[in-house]
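Bench notes, afternoon.
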Amino acid sequence: MARMSPAPSEVWQATSRRFFAAVAALVDAGRLASLSAFCSEHGFSAPRYRALRLAYGLTPKEGYVCPYSGVEVDALAVLASKYPVSASWLLTGRGRILTLRP
């Protein structure tokens, strides 16, 4: 029997949405080729993140029920430590998406 993940909290859902907004901003800025490239480079499951993007991405698929509860903490940490993405913004939504560091 398949194990279902618990429903994510509103905070976790919002953090997952910000993750996909940050990835899109990095792609638009030419700092990242794609979500799949991010996953491949850092050892995350691309199918998992494509499924998560359907639920939490910039244009979520209406009525889609994602089998995953949200973006992994490890992916948030990589995004904030390896790219010019504000960790504060990822967690709280306050401030700017991208930091000023190169």
